[in-house]
Amino acid sequence: MTLPHSEPLQTTDNIDGVLICRHPEQNRAPVVFDSPHSGQSYPSDFRAALPMEMLRSTEDRFVDELFSAAPLYGATLLHAIFPRSYIDPNRHHLDLDASLLAEPWPEELQPGSKTANGKGLIRSRAMGKSIYDRKLSLAEVEGRVEAYWKPYQETLSALLTRRWEEFGAVWHINCHSWTPPDKGRDGNPVRHLDFCLGDRDGATCDPEFTAFVAETLEGMGYVVRINRPFKGMELIRRNGAPERGRHSLQIEINRHLYLEPEGFGKSGGFAQLKENIERLISVICDRVKPS
Ligand SMILES: [Zn+2]
Asked: For a designed S-S bond to 35, which of 79, 141, 204, 282 qualifies (C-beta 3.0 to 4.6 A apart)?
């Protein structure tokens, strides 16, 4: 791995206090990383009924930091400042639970399996408890869509289109982390898994690229699976069109690799994982950069 040395290496845009966009200053690659679930800035109008520790359990904590080297290799990194428990950019805007609302939604809702589990556009539950002890007004939810969800979609889409127009193809890496359950539905311990890559069964990314990322991680000693248990959600569904050279791949990282088992701190594994992710970023950018 060769670290670039020239300065400055990146510029940072803060978009309306909602998003951070870190751009490379030079040596651009057709790669955009995004972290929609690592935001920790809780808006004052959230008015959740749960204590902060319970809300914070839903964050993909430090994922933006794990991928922070992206601009050094020519890629852009976009990440949310707001928390996913407030509104989730990785959901369709109609994947919403009508029972959360004080008034009917003006369009026909399309609640999916995530809404059924309390994890729709507006999350209803955290750690098994209801987030709200009240109904949300239409104006409140519409305000979240306009001020948070839409800017996320529009900024990501514009970044991808800009790179695609410049290079003729673009690779979007949608970054997450998850806490595996101790036991699976069958009651047996869940088999050890470090990373799960999702391309919606090849619908959002060239399977050869997905396999390349899996092999790179396996080469670092990690256990990797593709599309099980996570196929990927709205952001790769909206943005991936491999037949047009627009590739979107979801990466899920097992939080046991880098977080303390209890609480929210980094574990001793954080530094090693961050170094390996920097290697992954470097290898991805090298592979897709035109020679
Ligand atoms: Zn996530």
From this structure: 79
Residue 273: in which H helix or E strand, if any?
Answer: helix 270-288
Encode pLDDT of 79-92 as tens digits.
Answer: 999 999 999 999 99
What's the CA-to-centroid distance between 149 and ligand 1, angstroms? 15
CA distance 38 to 56: 10
Per-residue pLDDT reduced to its tens digit, 148-196: 999 999 999 999 999 999 999 999 999 999 998 877 667 766 678 999 9
- Distance (angstroms) between ligand 1 centre and the Cα of 40 equals 13
CA 89 – ligand 1 centroid, Å: 10
Percent of the chain with pLDDT over 90: 88
Q: Which CATH number fits domain 10-288: 3.40.50.300, 3.40.630.40, 3.40.120.10, 3.50.30.10?
A: 3.40.630.40
98 alpha carbon to ligand 1 midpoint, in Å?
23
Domains in the chain: boundaries: 10-288
Please give the sequence-ordered ranges of beta strands (E in DSSP) within the chain, or none if there are none.
10-15, 19-24, 31-35, 76-80, 125-126, 129-130, 170-178, 195-198, 224-226, 246-254
Contact 34, 79 (CB under 8 A): yes
